[in-house]
Amino acid sequence: MPEVGQNLRRVAAGLLTWVLTFGVVGVAVHPERCGSFQRSEVSAAADAAVGWLSANITNDGMFTYRYDLKVARDLGGYSEPRHAGAMLALYQAANHGFVDAQPTADKALSWALDRVVDTPIGPAFGVGTRLETGSTALLVAALVERRLLTGSDEFDSVILDMAATLVATVGNDGAVDAVIDTTTGPISERSRFYTGETLWALARLHLSFPGRGFDRAALRIRRYLISARDAVEKPWPPISDHWGAYAVETMARWPQPPARDAAEDAWVDRQLWMLGLQVRYESQRVGGITRLTRGDVALPAGVGTLGEAFGNFLILDSRNGILGDRRAVLQERATCATWLLLDRQSHAVDADGNITDSRVDGAWFRQGVSQLDDQQHTLSTLLFTLDWMET
Amino acid sequence: MSLLLVVLAVATAANPVRIAVAAGGDRRAPLLAACVLAPTTIVVAWLSGPINNLIGVSTSSAVIAAGISVVVIGVRDALVSPPRLEPSSTSVPTALFPLFFPTMFTPAVALMALATGAERGVVPAAAAMFVGLAASVGTAIGLPHGFTMHRPTLTRLVAGVFGVGGVIIGSLVATHGVMSI
Questions:
Q1: How far is Cα A196 from Cα A383, in angstroms, rounded to an integer?
Q2: Is B170 in CB contact (< 8 Å) with chain A?
Q3: pTM of the shown model
């Protein structure tokens, strides 16, 4: 009998080990909620997002910036970089065949061009005396997107004048001045995102306007962003840089693309793990107990930036095979990011499909609040998804 | 995850000192238990894809889970003495109990098979698991019987050293999972 008791205790101890281990593992690792989708679903979601942007812009071209669904109230505020970013996403949508997007984007462009002001280094977009460099960079990127759409040179002089402004914000080390004072010129401040935005704008300019030296400034920023930025600026948490991904993808399409080197490979590797980790983490946020262990879901704009970066890396890979055997897993993560956005998009339509609340339908909300960039980055992600689903 | 890391993780997760103590001087029993455990881990590695899909866990997260489980078993081994086997316990086939379960087939071994199978495929996983188990069982058989029977303090200390090793190796495995796409 003592032997039986001893064995039972031992079995119980063994089972307890399994239970405790899986208990600890269960707190640290949750199931990931991802799904699959059809191309038509992505297209419909993008169409709805374009619809929201088109329904929530004033006649003079200013978007609804923040909206609180809980109290049905416009919360006001505004951001010029996000205005330019939303306009860019609309021109991207127009280039993907969403015909309602261009009139809205043109309206937003009119608002932006009315706010291009002279500074000591050239014209820049913004309001007030401290203009954010990212506003001008994204306006230039959007105008280049429009140029690709229309084939028109209507805004070439505006583009080139603002391009000169952007070049003047780039230091010899490749760092980008994040602010332009309307009276004193560039201010040596750094931004998490304007470096990548300026790099991408200049990279696009070199493709559209070759031989004007935009490549030299772009290469300086690229070297800084890839090799030095994290060490110099010490951003925390580390930056998963979707704008950098846009730029690297664009520069690979230059007639003479920069040679891949170990620094770029290391930067891409770092980006991939940050992106993968973030989407895995996000997909574990399914409510219930995960609110305690994972917190609330991320901003839709944040998930959108992940999708944009995934999209750029997947398209880059289809050209130069940079991902190697990692393409399948990256596509899995990209699929998950897009699925999360599809799952979280709001719909306000009646049984006949008529929109019942244009403030809601097609938008993404977090804790009942939607902000302009929640539509910008998500729409761009959906468009990228349409692209990489074809490759 | 390198296969060397898998080998080291398995060799610590199936703690050789605990195996030696549980075997109670029987040198064939650990070999028999390994013969049961090896195909078990191969089956787990082979089924890793469907299992992970069923529970909705990506390969990277499975690797994190495996690393954490190796850490947990390492902490246990560092803090808790190996249970001593009374002579009467040999009435139960030692290879199956207490060697296969609960000594050798720990959750860490199972989750390592699951993660390695998903990440590296069943053949490399099986090879690495086999080498890790062989190292563990070989070490257990090589330990002098008197050491485990008459030097309880030293036995606990050496088992604890393997446990600390498990904590370190498991942390490396989990870090690899975090750093994966």
A1: 20
A2: no
A3: 0.90
Give chain A positions within 8 Å (CB) of B178: 273, 277
Q: Is A56 helix (H, G, I), strand (E, B) or coil?
A: coil
Of all residues in chain A, the one with the smallest CA distance to B178 is A277
Residuewise pLDDT in 10s, chain B (181 residues): 899 999 999 999 999 999 999 888 888 889 999 999 999 999 999 999 999 999 999 999 999 999 999 999 999 999 998 877 655 455 457 778 888 999 999 999 999 999 999 999 999 999 999 999 999 999 999 988 767 767 788 889 999 999 999 999 999 999 999 999 8
**Chain A CB within 8 Å of residue B86 CB:** yes
Using CB atoms within 10 Å of the CB of residue A276, give its burial: 0 to 12 exposed, 13 to 18 middle, 19+ buried. buried
What single letter denotes the amino acid at residue B166? G
* Phi and psi angles of residue A348, each rounded to the nearest 5 degrees, phi first: -135, 75
Cα–Cα dist A294/B149, whole Å: 47
Q: Which member of B72, B101, B181 has the closest CB to residue A273?
A: B181
Neighbours of B2 (CB within 10 A): 12
What's B86's DSSP letter? P
B59 CB within 8 Å of a chain A CB: yes
* φ and ψ at residue A355, rounded to 5 degrees: -70, 125
